[in-house]
Amino acid sequence: MSNKTPKLTVVGAGPGDPDLITLKAIKALKSADVVLYDALINESLLEYAPDAEKIYVGKRKGCYAYQQEQINELIISRAKSHGHVVRLKGGDPFIFGRGAEEIDYVQRFGIETNMVPGISSSLAVPAYQGIPLTKRGSSESFWVITGTTKAHKLSQDVYLAAKSNATVVILMGMSKLNEIVSIFAKENKQDVPVAIIQNGTTKHEKFGFGSIKTIEQVVLDKELSSPAIIVIGEVVNQRVKLTSVYEQVQEEIVF
User: Average pLDDT of 150-174?
Assistant: First the structure.
């Protein structure tokens, strides 16, 4: 047993670009005795915790290094045996990241808990492609929806969002793209612009632009897959010209 105070800090790692982590998150990592990290974090961030024990507990496409119950127990055991446990999660831990669930569980055992927000991929990934989720005259609001619920179904909120004029951002929705397209098509929105951005903000980023009626073919042509974010709305056509995006497009043309 450690003589350190058992503590959990749930930390948002941001969307993928390691420069998009916060200073507070770096401070938490530097003070960590154990880091439990997820699949979508940039592993270069682990260098901020050189002396900590590092345990991969990620989940990808039904493959689980640990079940959630095992992760919960691992947090408890390591906090008691080592001290400060940092739970490093992609994006923001409170946006489809189960961060609140883990904190709720740990607090039952009287362990100190803290949370460091992260930059959500739902906001940052479109921004890196110059897509504003809101823009005067185009969109007054936006939805952020999970494409896959706990029951592995498409969220019913997609049906509601499709009836609105808001920008719709769907996370974890690539396996449900056909269903999503059908829902929007039934609302006579075949021509609404769509962007799909894979591995956003990272050096492996890929993207495709189209409309509700063309995006499935774009996905095939561009060979896009998970992890990706789907952005639906007029703001896709309102994207600003960023130097970084321009250079990326030019590189694709050259090579």
Answer: 94
